[in-house]
Amino acid sequence: MAARVKKDESPRTPLTPERVVSAAIELADEKGVAKLTMRGLAASLGVEAMSLYYHFANKGKILDAMVDAVFAEVELPAKDDEWKPAMRARAGSLRSVLLDHTWAIALMDSRPDPGLGTITHHDAIIGCLRSAGFSMSLTAHAFSVIDSYVYGFVSQESGLPFQSSEELADVAGGIIESLPVEQFPHFSEMVAAYYLHPEYSFAEEFLVGLDLILDGLERLRAAEVSDGES
Amino acid sequence: MAARVKKDESPRTPLTPERVVSAAIELADEKGVAKLTMRGLAASLGVEAMSLYYHFANKGKILDAMVDAVFAEVELPAKDDEWKPAMRARAGSLRSVLLDHTWAIALMDSRPDPGLGTITHHDAIIGCLRSAGFSMSLTAHAFSVIDSYVYGFVSQESGLPFQSSEELADVAGGIIESLPVEQFPHFSEMVAAYYLHPEYSFAEEFLVGLDLILDGLERLRAAEVSDGES
DNA sequence: ACCTGAACACCGTTCAAGT
DNA sequence: ACCTGAACACCGTTCAAGT
User: Fold this and answer.
1) B41 CA to centre of own chain
2) Backbone conformation region of residue A31, classed left if phi is above 0, alpha if psi is from -120 to 50, else beta
3) Could you tell me if B73 and B120 are in contact, meaning their C-beta atoms sit under 8 angstroms apart?
4) Contacts of residue B137 in chain A, CB cutoff 8 Å?
5) Contact assessment for residue B216 and residue A215, using Cβ atoms and an 8 Å cutoff
6) If you average pLDDT over each of A56-65, A118-127, A217-226, which comes out highest?
7) Which chain B residue's Cα is nearest to A158?
8) How confident is the model over B118-171, as pLDDT tens digits?
9) Label partner for A184 (CA 20 to 30 A): which of A1, A45, A156, B46?
């Protein structure tokens, strides 16, 4: 009640864009983006909702900043790493960052304004590929196919209502039971014989596809070098 | 004002789940999912918002049904089509359906309950690959890598704030201008030299990556056949 | 069986006002 | 400069009530 908050023990640390964004990311990680409200976010910072509007024009700007911050978490290749292990490691890092912040994938679709974190990221990747002798157009192809694959894979992986393979078995079992098996013979067979197998692993499935793509790019690069393109 | 709607000219056709779902899809196509509200959807059907709750438990169920209906639009391979052209055509069909209903990708992430349309779809694809001699595990790999790629590609493509390559040039030009070029040399070079090129085309970029993947699968299949796996 | 009105507990955002 | 209270125009959903 009383106005007794003197001494410089800073009654509360002042709001900054950075504090807002990291609180927002934390909140989204815990409860999902759907539950990320201006009022809830403000409360988690010990402040009123309207204070946020002093630092951000609207909720959309906060979402943009969250996406950019997530991107900045991804490990970047050094410019003269070998391209293949570098791309492989970076794809794995991107996957794990996106799995940590599953809401980010859906957000990226709806807010394409690239921030500085995103551009820094892109620049490093293009640089690594160009140094490895990729032509401009092959660099663009490589970037497109790798990123499409990673986003698509993680978005399917994270959309599924389970994490461990035991949970997978439970869910898949449930689906199978309630399904007219004779109407979907191949699907049923597949679920029963493959996804229910205890050693099924998203991490391995991810690497199979990724290596298929990287090997394909390696072949294109070799062909390009022998053709002498730029 | 008066109660004058007799004769069986049916003052309004009765609500059915199908009518609700197709009105919802139309509305989402026109204005985006964000603008798809229970009140707005009801209004577009000449009905009050609460009427929808007689046919669907909640908004989530409507979203589930929308996703399933979109999936049912995708062209399916016949069981004994050659696998490669069949997968190529189906990937193209999936891309174009998803481009027609860009909201569907984001929705699929958040609502993984597969409906009958989705399962029918999966069943046909698995059947086609199995008939072509793919082992169970290679079928799973193929499915995973192709779909991940298509979803990821389209989600990036549709997230961009332009459609034609002239618009691309405009936007990319704007980004470049406002960017500290010396800080992002590779990114700037790429945008200037490649994406700004007038003949850049998403459709072609899509096919380059897709064919890279299909060729890789072909190689794995050949290796499998000569090994005699099942 | 099918549809509705009123009401509840929420949203994001504005605007004028406080310190 | 930084934060806030009250208010506005929205949401999804419940529940009792109408035909």
Assistant:
1) 22
2) alpha
3) no
4) 194
5) yes
6) A56-65
7) B109
8) 889 999 999 999 999 999 999 999 999 999 999 999 999 987 766 677 777 777
9) A156
Average pLDDT across chain B, whole number:
88
Helices (H), B73-134: 83-100, 103-110, 116-131
Is residue B59 predicted with pLDDT exceeding 50? yes
- Rounded mean pLDDT, A189-205: 86
* Distance measured from the CA of protein residue A56 to the C1' of nucleotide C19, in angstroms: 21
Q: Which tokens hold the place of B176?
A: 């470049």
Distance of residue B52 Cα from the nearest chain A Cα, in angstroms: 22
Check CB contact of B204 with chain A, cutoff 8 Å.
Answer: no
How far is residue A29's CA from residue A27's CA, in Å, rounded to a whole number? 5
User: Taking the model in full, what pTM does it have?
Assistant: 0.90
- Which pLDDT score, from 0 to 100, does residue B90 have? 97
Give the domains, in start order, of chain B with CATH numbers: 13-56 (1.10.10.60), 68-160+202-229 (1.10.357.10), 165-195 (no CATH)
CA distances from B165 to A126, B136, B168 (A): 21, 41, 5
Token pair belonging to A74: 């991804």
